[in-house]
Amino acid sequence: MKPFTFLAALPAVLGFGGFVLYELLGTHRAGDEITRRIIEKLRQQAPNSIEKDQRLTSSQVERLLVGDQNLQELIGKQDFLLLQQALRQQFITSLTVYSLAVVFCGLSVGLFVRHAEAKKQLQIDHWSVASMDPASDGLPVDLDPLQISWQSTGEPEDVSVYLENVQTSGRTDAMIAPSSTNTVRFVPDSYHKILQNRQLGQTNRIRAVMQAREAVFASNPIELPVGITILTVVDAEARLTVAAMIDHGRIQNYDFEAKIVIPSRSLARASVSIGPSIPFRFPVRRVNHPNQIDWDSAKGIYIKPDDPRLVRFEFLVDSSLKR
Question: Per-domain residue ranges for the chain?
Fold first, then answer.
């Protein structure tokens, strides 16, 4: 049994238990002692008024006495008044016990209904925003596909999920997904339009927002850093150049350290190696025997001055060199 289920049932259990205990201890009520004393007097002084084996309750004895003035005189006025007082007290006590039992049971019913409704209502929490590129080590970077994850409880439903720039209120197009999938993915082209800050070292403050049928949920804002692309271009004449880019423009006066290696198809030829120092004004380099270079296996490693998790390598090689 789950804790909330037990707590919901507890008022009813207490109410029912109190009611049973009240009934079990009822034989010790003060009114029952007075009733026994009156019945004993009646059996002694008016034996014909009560059958020998007849068992009467306090209320039955009272009705018997109210209907016969002579019997009242036999038992005495004081005992009769005590019986009436005890019956009134028993009525008040019984009414209180029954009312409390009903209130406790009603409270349990209300808690169960609330619990059932809470289980059906969709709740979203534990948001996370992570890059899908292994080079980022999970750090969100604006060059990568972003995976938005969450945990959902309650009745599943189709929801709309979008990214929002907290600073500008710009929004991406919404993605429709079942809440139970617990994840959606935004490719860079889908969210670049909401990014305002585009300079080296800057970030954009974004968050994920989910629109459900009856509620809106949002993640905590995160700082999405501007990424750096190390672009290597080789034209049809095998002239190679390297530049650090943000979007479609070079980072002005940006010198950096990185190592770029492009292996040869043959062990007889040396690989193309560039770096580690790569200046802003990189001298164009002509590659010998370009048709013997395995351009598709080109790799790069960024060293400094920025966080390597922010850097991605891209290679644009003329298709004629790959034949």
Answer: 3-120, 123-225, 228-322
